[in-house]
Amino acid sequence: DAKTTQPNSMESNEEEPVHLPCNHSTISGTDYIHWYRQLPSQGPEYVIHGLTSNVNNRMASLAIAEDRKSSTLILHRATLRDAAVYYCILSGVGGYNKLIFGAGTRLAVHP
Amino acid sequence: NAGVMQNPRHLVRRRGQEARLRCSPMKGHSHVYWYRQLPEEGLKFMVYLQKENIIDESGMPKERFSAEFPKEGPSILRIQQVVRGDSAAYFCASSPAGDSNQPQHFGDGTRLSIL
Asked: Rounded to 5 degrees, what are φ and ψ at A82?
């Protein structure tokens, strides 16, 4: 299975941008890069995904390196509600959408 | 639009009893995934089902665990003769198709406690 590497934890201040990195050097050409987050005591929540081009949605932006071996999730203005564990996942194992979760990055947001 | 509904939210069982966890996918979604999160651990894939078919059960323990997604009704994760180690949060997710370009929508989980 293609694996991802993320920092264990990061900190940010409220209303500042946050850049969450992810390395995936063994990514294959058909793997999508997905980001999910999990708030305390809740189920995971889809954030964003992409294949090659950068992506934007109402929650975040995803910047994908040209060689696709790394990506960055960008939260443009962190809020206290963004404190969560963020998971970077390569989707495509077995040719379908089976998600293999790693340890993720625990993001703390300070007021 | 109702999201993925899981029930019950909390389930308490004694060792040796059976636990049944239900998951109603989002409207129009025919693909269901179950994941388990043990205390202080990450989420682990258990099983992937389409209507009436199990596609991948590679993450499911070989004994005592079974899953189904019938033509009508919710998906059911069944754990027979529960043991203390089964205590965990069980999450269900659904998607409209099974390809890797599809986001999965998760429910809020069932927290199973074994006495």
From this structure: -85, -5
Closest listed residue to residue A46, CA positions, set A65, A73, A71: A73
Mutation for testing the B interface, residue in A53, A62, A98 having most B CBs under 10 Å: A98
By 3-state DSSP, what share of chain B in percent is helix, strand and coil, each rounded to 5?
5, 50, 50
A41-96 confidence digits (pLDDT tens): 899 999 999 999 999 999 999 999 999 999 999 999 999 999 999 999 998 755 66
Determine, for residues A43 and B33 on separate chains, whether the beta-carbon distance falls below 8 Å.
no
Q: What is the pLDDT of residues B51-104, one digit of tens each?
A: 999 999 999 999 999 999 999 999 999 999 999 999 999 999 999 888 878 899
Pairing of strands B31-37, B43-50: antiparallel
Facing A46 at nearest CB: one of B31, B43, B105: B105
Q: What is the DSSP track for B32-77?
A: EEEEEE-TTS-EEEEEEEETTEEEE-TTS-SSSEEEE--SSS-EEE
